[in-house]
């Protein structure tokens, strides 16, 4: 059993903002697996549980066998993301190494991916709360770059803004690659995903 969590804030006013790119990845991934009709139908197709929208299914592994996967969009707002994650992990008895958190990153150029098996929150409030809730920072995370904010623009305002047209041209392919990275993690493990997608500079 693996859990993939896309971080973001609920509500139409946050839809499409930089801080919600984790939601976009989870929605695209569910659609790619055929679990929902389209990314836009995630919210209407998902069940509400663990203070989140949840969609689950089974992934066929290349080596044979299957893996059950739960996709989550926490509804607690970013700063309380750990509440939802901890509840799902406890219910399914999932260890931290079988959790993948997808989030935005101000320190990476727009469209760049970075997968890590653990580490600090890097100032991201969603990761901070997950670490607090589950008691460790050793769990996989997939960061998607959104660029640093322009000079004199507060980070909080920037992440809650929407991508420029030029950024969106980089973000959409990055979301597609993120889905591939998550599938590789599920199928082949963390090292395979890191080796393949951290080296991908085609942005």
Shape: globular
Please count the beta strands (DSSP E, at least 2 residues each). Answer: 7
Strand content: 15-25%
Mean pLDDT: 95
Number of domains: 1
> Helix tally?
7
Summarize the structure in words.
This protein is 37% helix and 21% strand. The protein is of the alpha/beta class. The protein has a single domain, classed as Rossmann fold, CATH 3.40.50.1470. It has a seven-stranded mixed β-sheet with strand order 2-3-4-1-5-7-6, with helices on both faces. The longest helix has 24 residues, at 165-188. The protein starts with a strand and ends in a 6-residue tail after the last helix. The mean pLDDT is 95.
Could you list some keywords that capture this structure?
Rossmann fold, 203 residues, 7 helices, alpha/beta
What's the SSE blueprint?
Layout: E1 2-6, H1 21-32, H2 42-45, E2 47-49, E3 52-60, E4 66-74, H3 81-92, E5 99-105, E6 113-116, H4 125-134, E7 141-145, H5 155-159, H6 165-188, H7 190-197
Parallel strand pairs: 1-4, 1-5, 5-7
Antiparallel strand pairs: 2-3, 3-4, 6-7
Give a quick summary of the entry:
37% of the residues lie in helices and 21% in strands.
């Amino acid at each position: 059993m693996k859990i993939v969590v896309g971080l973001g804030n609920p509500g139409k006013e946050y839809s499409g903002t930089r801080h919600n790119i984790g939601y976009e990845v989870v929605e695209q991934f569910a659609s790619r697996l055929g679990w929902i009709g389209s990314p836009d139908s995630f919210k209407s197709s998902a069940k509400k549980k663990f203070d989140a929208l949840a969609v689950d299914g089974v992934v066929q592994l290349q080596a044979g066998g299957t893996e059950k996967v739960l996709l989550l969009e926490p509804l607690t707002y970013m700063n309380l993301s750990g509440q939802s994650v901890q509840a799902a992990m406890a219910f399914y008895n999932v260890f931290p190494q079988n959790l993948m958190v997808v989030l935005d990153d101000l320190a990476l150029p727009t469209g760049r991916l970075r997968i890590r098996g653990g580490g600090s929150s890097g100032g991201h409030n969603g990761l901070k709360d997950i670490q607090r809730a589950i008691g460790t920072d050793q769990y996989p995370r997939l960061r998607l770059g959104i660029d640093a904010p322009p000079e004199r623009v507060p980070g909080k305002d920037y992440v809650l803004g929407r991508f420029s047209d030029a950024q969106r041209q980089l973000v959409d392919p990055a979301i597609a690659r993120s889905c591939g990275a998550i599938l590789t993690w599920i199928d082949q493990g963390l090292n395979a995903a890191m080796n393949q997608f951290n080296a991908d500079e085609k942005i």
